[in-house]
Specification:
Helices cover 20% and strands 38% of the residues. The strands form three sheets. Strands 1-3-2-6-5-4 form a six-stranded mixed barrel. It has a four-stranded mixed beta sheet with strand order 10-7-9-12, with no helix packed on it. It is elongated, with a radius of gyration of 25 Å. The protein starts with a strand and ends with a helix.
Length: 218
């Protein structure tokens, strides 16, 4: 179980919206909570600028983070990030404790590769549409992938890829598929472009248009 990210935090006693606002305004810090495992939830504060810098890296969301609370490190994953709706400000963070012997459940990003050589796009002029950008998985911390690749090279026009088409690493399983085949949701498809659909108008529509023009001329 590797930890590529480290965040410094402090334990805090003050709770409530007023305390959180003071923390953000006066100390340049944000509130957070750590839960899970055999310990009670812990209220913490983090330095806002350090959090913002970490969040710029996509891998931060799907990696084990070493969270040092008052100098004592705990292995965690990010479970939730609350942001200001209009400003580039993080308001609150949730972390989940992880253990090397216990499977964790989290979401990892999907990376769509070979879209530039996708057969349905190059040969048939289709357009790629993504239905999902991340997948919820379950695995031991040591098996946690940074992301999952979805190869679009051989996807033809009209074809749809589903969760079951993703090649999952050893030790990793899809939470959705664990509930049955009827949860095998679509993740991407190659659809006809609107321009192509307009070019191939039904013959009946064309005949009707011609008849309308002829009637108006009479």
């Amino acid at each position: 179980m590797s930890t590529d990210f480290t965040l410094q935090a402090k334990g805090r006693e003050d709770k409530g919206k007023g305390a959180s606002r003071r923390l953000r305004r006066l100390a340049g810090e944000i509130p957070g909570v750590v839960y899970g495992g055999k310990k009670d939830p812990a209220q913490i504060s983090l330095i806002h600028k350090d959090v913002v810098k970490a969040l710029e890296n996509e891998a931060f969301y799907s990696n084990i983070v070493s969270l040092e609370i008052d100098g004592k490190a705990e292995d965690v994953i990010v479970k939730d990030v609350q942001r200001h709706p209009a400003k580039a400000i993080v308001l609150h963070m949730d972390f989940l404790r992880v253990s090397k012997n216990t499977k964790l459940q989290t979401k990892v990003p999907l990376h769509f590769i070979n879209e530039d050589i996708c057969v349905g796009v190059k040969m048939s002029g289709g357009l790629i549409a993504h239905s999902m950008t991340e997948l919820e998985i379950m695995c031991l911390p040591k098996d946690l992938p940074e992301y999952l690749e979805v190869d679009m090279a051989e996807v033809d026009l009209g074809q749809t890829l589903h969760i079951s088409d993703i090649k999952l690493p050893k030790g990793v399983e899809s939470v959705a598929l664990s509930h049955g085949e009827d949860h095998d949701l679509p993740i991407a498809a190659v659809n006809k472009s609107k321009a192509k659909e307009e070019d191939v108008a039904p013959a009946g529509d064309a005949d009707a248009a011609d008849s309308s023009e002829a009637s108006s001329e009479e």
